[in-house]
Amino acid sequence: MGKKMENVSACLSCGACCSTFRVSFYWAEADDAPGGWVPVDLTEKLTPHLRCMRGSNSKSRRCDQLQGAIPGALCGIYAQRPSPCRELEPYTAEGRVTAQCAKARATHGLPPLPDVPAMP
Ligand code: SF4
Ligand code: SF4
């Protein structure tokens, strides 16, 4: 998902969180709303106020825009990804692995990242 610079290298060889959680967000992030940026055709309606990435509401929880095999899968719409993808970071500001990252990696049989991010 979306990353700060020091987190990019860990995520480039992963992609697990894009196939673990339902990726839902306020509907107006989709580009059928003024100022929206996520291609609406790649999303589906959840509630009157929420949309989600297609695929992420399926049993596999795999976003349709994830390209390649985990670990090493990449986002096909990186510049247009919705806010939850931008906000899910592998590390806290203190350099600890986040719970969401650890859960996603465990779901795919991957060990948690080491505390303290690797330098890019
Ligand atoms: S599970 Fe963690 S390391 Fe993997 S892509 Fe998501 S945030 Fe990055
Ligand atoms: S839009 Fe991209 S970053 Fe977000 S879940 Fe899908 S593949 Fe991952």
Main sheet summary: 3 strands, antiparallel
Strands in their spatial order, largest beta sheet: 1-3-2
Bound molecules: iron/sulfur cluster
The tally of beta strands, per DSSP, is: 5
Count of individual domains: 1
**Apparent shape:** globular
Approximately how much helix is present in the residues?
10-25%
Strand content: 5-15%
Instruction: Count helical runs.
Output: 3
Please compute the radius of gyration using only Cα atoms.
14 Å
- Structure classification: alpha+beta
The run of helices and strands is HEEEEEHH
Summarize this structure briefly:
This protein has 120 residues and is α+β, with helices and mostly antiparallel strands. It has helices at residues 8-12, 83-87, 99-107; strands at 24-26, 43-45, 50-53, 66-67, 74-75. The protein has one domain.
Please outline the helices and strands.
Blueprint: H1 8-12, E1 24-26, E2 43-45, E3 50-53, E4 66-67, E5 74-75, H2 83-87, H3 99-107
This protein binds iron/sulfur cluster (2 copies).
Residues 1, 18, 23, 53, 63, 65-66, 75, 77, 81, 85 line the site of one iron/sulfur cluster.
Describe it for me?
The protein is α+β, with helices and mostly antiparallel strands. The strands form 2 sheets. Strands 1-3-2 form a 3-stranded antiparallel sheet, with no helix packed on it. The chain has a two-stranded antiparallel sheet with strand order 4-5. The protein has helices at residues 8-12, 83-87, 99-107, and strands spanning 24-26, 43-45, 50-53, 66-67, 74-75. The model has no long low-confidence stretch (mean pLDDT 92). It has one domain (5-107). It has 3 helices and 5 strands. It is 16% helix and 12% strand. Strand 4 and strand 5 form a beta hairpin. Bound molecules: iron/sulfur cluster (2 copies). The site of one iron/sulfur cluster has 13 residues, from helix 1 and helix 3.
